[in-house]
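User: structure tokens for this one?
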Amino acid sequence: NPTVQSLIDALRTEMEQYGEMLARLDEQQASIVRFKGDEVIAAGASIEAQAAEMNKARTHRTDCAQAVARDLKCPDETPIQEMVVRLHKDLRPLVTELVRENNELIVRIQQRSRQNHLLLARSLESMQRMIDCIAPASPPTRYTPAGRAEKVFRPQIIYSAVG
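Assistant:
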């Protein structure tokens, strides 16, 4: 059945896109850990581009699944797992395995995304603490003889030479 083969091909393509996303998230994580800001920014752009490809693959797979559902006289929104029992017995294990692998990759992508987010947040917090030590966020306020508040900007010595 050509529609079932299209679904199988779409599931494989989707799996490839998920694998590529996982690889890009791994690259981003390595850049974060090495404190390579330029690489982190480049990885972010790469991840956004891959997300678009991933969504295209997911949309195509959804379209293929709907076509299979129509061929099987099921509603368009029937999950693939429910359609598997109506497929030829030789195709069931393959489709089941592709769906399982895609679902596992989605979970891994979500986990890696959360890890990267946490690493980035910790890095930003650390940088903010360092900045706060060097230059406090808000300058002190003083009042003029007329009673108006004004900020006092005093240069701070960050480095003092000895000798």
